[in-house]
Amino acid sequence: MWNDFKEKTITFEGRKALIIYPKGKPNGKMILKTEYLGAFPNFDIEMLSRGYHLIHITHRTRWATDLETDIMADFVRYCAKELGASERVIVEGMSCGGLQAAQLARRHPELCAVLYLDAPVLNILSMAGLGAISRENADSFWLELVDAFGFNHSTVVNFRNSPIDDLSPLIENEIPVIMLYGNADDVVLYEENGRVLENYYKEHGGKLEVICRSMGHHHPHGLDDPLPIIEFVEENYK
Length: 238
Prior knowledge:
eight-stranded mixed β-sheet, 8 helices, 8 strands, 19% strand
């Protein structure tokens, strides 16, 4: 059981994956939580109570390589077929999960009905220490990033596969976004990550709602009352 909801664990492309079932009649829609399944689940619990399935697949790296993103897309298609649900999912991404969500929307926009991003990583160069992030935080991520992308201190400056490098698929496919952040977050700096998406959406007429947690840090994610998030994703589900 997952938070008192029935769950099914499977292996998909060599990765552990879960399907979590609503207690009532399914509504034919799914939520993909891209990372940190057990973290800050009040939104997920409420959506399960409204008839959504919750799906999740583990990743061999949390940094959203093309391979992991494509496997996640195949998993969405698999779950839709198994559950008789729409392939167009609500994609929920917190922190590095936000990176995974945005990369899925870039590479497979046809699967993304709406994005719920929370303190999202959208700029790999920021996380690698090329911006204003502290050296301590950058060092904590560096080896993971090298393992995921194969760059080094000389070649990282040429990396151009962050979501902020091409947000046009999100606009072209009219993918609505609700984004939360804390303005005291010193782990994922909003000015170098979410702000870029915010400005791009405003400049190009995208559907976007931004909620700032005043004096909020990187944690906790979500809202004590998830209703504003729920209302946005349900009103803008396409």
